[in-house]
Amino acid sequence: MLVIDPVAFSFGPLQVHWYGIIMGTAALLGLYLAVLEGKRQGIDTDKLLDMMIWVLPSAIIGARLYYVLFEWEYYATHPEDILAVWQGGLAIHGGLIAAFLVGYFYIRKHKLSFLQLADIVAPSILLAQAIGRWGNFINQEAHGGPVNTAFLHSLHLPDWLISQMTIGGVTYHPTFLYESLWNLVGFGLLLLLRYVVIPKRGEILFSYLIWYSLGRFFIEGLRTDSLAFNGPDWLSSFLQLLWTPMGLLFPAGQLTGGDIRIAQLISMVTVLVAVGVVIWRRTKKAEDTTSKHINSQTVATEVKSNN
């Protein structure tokens, strides 16, 4: 059974891992698409590139710190592995938090529109995430629980993919693939929003947050390596209740280290907040429009009365 070597090639003692190649390719392709869209919208390309020079390293550092902090029990005794990002262990939520914070302060400093730039980069982020998940595939990580190989064959998956998902004689759910495909579909939908629907400013960003978080919430429940903590019983039960539709199809992945998956909790909160903000912004806009209409009618009435 063929298993892909995580090391792509070597230069003496220097090893170049597929994980790094895939992540780098994902970042560069996402950056390229963002620059093209920035030019289309009249954004200074130099400022966009300068922002990315700050944002991309910050995202990697944030993703790693986030993962290390939640796995500190291991890294406290293995500090030499903290910088070994090629072994995996980049938490997307940590990367997003760091990227948005750094990007926000850069945009404020240069007096740009945060929502406009966020709308520009949101599809690029989702595409980069779709590509980046294949780094997990190479490292045989971020997979789900055991699954019957007949099920994977029923999905018409190639043998080399099924072989890579067979670890120690056990075949696992290719959750990396599920999320990659979900993100790829979302990327197409965001482009449809951008070029066809043309929503209000900021709504491509919020659509990204909603789409990605919904997929992550349900797919995360299948995984066996989720970052987790022990929380209140009511919260654990509530999350399990929300995950019920997926549970009707597949059993949840075995969870260790806690009873609440952090990624599921963050995803649920993100969906609620993003939906709430969209509704609030649209309601506020409607109220502002109604108020302006009433005020214009009042002025017209007063002018007519004075005449």
General description of the model:
By secondary structure, the chain is mainly alpha-helical. The chain has one domain (7-306). It has twelve helices and six strands. The chain has helices at 18-40, 45-70, 72-75, 92-109, 114-138, 149-154, 159-164, 175-197, 203-220, 233-242, 244-247, 262-306; strands at residues 7-11, 14-17, 166-167, 170-171, 228-229, 260-261. It has a two-stranded antiparallel sheet. It has a two-stranded antiparallel ribbon with strand order 3-4. Helix 5 runs antiparallel to helix 8 (175-197). The chain is globular, with a radius of gyration of 23 Å. Keywords: Cell membrane, Glycosyltransferase, Lipoprotein, Membrane, Transferase, Transmembrane, Transmembrane helix.
Q: Could you write a compact summary of the structure shown?
A:
The protein has helices at residues 18-40, 45-70, 72-75, 92-109, 114-138, 149-154, 159-164, 175-197, 203-220, 233-242, 244-247, 262-306; strands at residues 7-11, 14-17, 166-167, 170-171, 228-229, 260-261. The protein is mainly alpha-helical and 307 residues long. The strands form 3 sheets. The protein has a two-stranded antiparallel ribbon with strand order 1-2. Strands 3-4 form a two-stranded antiparallel ribbon. It has a two-stranded antiparallel ribbon with strand order 5-6.
